[in-house]
Amino acid sequence: MEYSAATVEGVFGSVDDTLRTIYHQFVNGYAIISLIACVLIALLLGRILAWILRYVVVIIGTRADRSKSLQQSNMLRRYETYIVLSIALIRGLLVIVALYIWWVLIHPDGQPTAIIGASALAAIIISSSLAPLLRDIAAGGAMMAEQWFGVGDLVRIEPFGDMQGVVERVTLRSTRIRGLNGEIIWVNNQNIQAVRLTPRGTRTIALELFVHDRKAGEALVVSANERLPQGPLLVSRPLQVLEANQVGESLWHITAMGETAPGREWLLETSAVDLLTELDAESERPILDFKPLARFADAEAEKRFKRTITNAQKRPAAKQPIKRRRRSL
After folding, report:
1. CA atoms of 247 and 193, how far apart (whole Å)
2. Which residues pair with 251 in a beta bridge?
3. Half-sphere exposure in the Cβ direction for 204 (13 Å, CA)
4. Is residue 99 a contact partner of residue 184, using CB atoms and an 8 Å limit?
5. Which residues contact 267 (CB under 8 A, 6 or more apart)?
6. With contact defined as beta carbons under 8 Å apart, do 206 and 295 qualify?
7. Per the count of CB atoms within 10 A, which of 55, 148, 175, 213 is most buried?
């Protein structure tokens, strides 16, 4: 198909007029200065509001740490998470409002349809160029809506098996956690496939002891506690004897339970077991029947597993023969 010189000249002329219009509307000094001013004001307001909200977060976090009620502490930590999350949302909304105000300033006589069309065009451009960021935001929004975790929770991020720590900051784009060794770890929300949440932030370990003397066995547990390192990041709660049952003529079963910080389970699983064994061997009259057994213990988990196992052991009821009634003729 052949085009005349006039047609080609007309096309190039219309393109030139469009570029000139765009240049005069968006690249002129007034448009650039007003855009910079609107964005700077939005960023300044966002910084001020972020400072105020972070101050509120510190107050709420302090109250959560001082609270003796686990339910109230969890509730305050959820509030802390929502406020931290709202900081990023407020900043984003302020920037959007600033861009809208800038558009109105440089187009005082603009039609609403033009604004809608420009917004749609901007949305298409942003979505195509910022696809990874939008995936992070979508993943973060879903996690926050379903309350996977919150600020102050102890989590392990999957598929990264060694990524474990306390959540310090949550946004729609990323999550920041602090490891037990002090490392600060940032992870994009779209890369979080699963989260292992530790209830109450501690690991509960139970030791099963079989002894020939109940009182001597309980005294052995007390002696072991005196030699175990205790603290928030070590043995957070010393071993306590929960129950002692006689299982034989001269044999007692003692259950002692303690708590450690995550990653320090070896203090009770290994060190406490070895310490109990050594203390018993050094005594004049050993009372341990064999080496203590260590296991994880969680009251809620044991309750649920016990119910599942009990239901699984139930036998189906025997089928009763169906008795048919004879019709009287």
Report:
1. 46
2. 248
3. 14
4. no
5. 228, 229, 234, 235, 260
6. yes
7. 175
**Phi (first) and psi of residue 314, to 5 degrees:** -70, 140
- Would you say residue 243 lies in a domain? yes
Which CATH number is 169's domain given?
2.30.30.60
Token representation of residue 293: 């057994």
What count of Cα atoms within 13 Å lies in the side-chain half-sphere of residue 302? Answer: 8
CA-to-CA separations, 243 to 135, 211, 240, 255, in angstroms, rounded: 52, 13, 9, 6
Residues 32/106, Cβ–Cβ less than 8 Å: no
For residue range 110-140, list pLDDT tens digits in order. Answer: 555 555 555 555 555 555 555 677 777 778 7
Tokens representing 203 are: 């690991």
Q: How many Å apart are CA 251 and CA 246, to the nearest integer?
A: 6
Please tell me the pTM assigned to this model.
0.50
Q: Is residue 10 part of a domain?
A: no
Single residue among 75, 100, 129 that ends a domain in this structure = 129
* Average pLDDT of the residues in 57-62: 80
Contact residues for 239 (Cβ-Cβ < 8 A; gap 6+): 207, 221, 224, 225, 228, 256, 257, 258, 268, 272
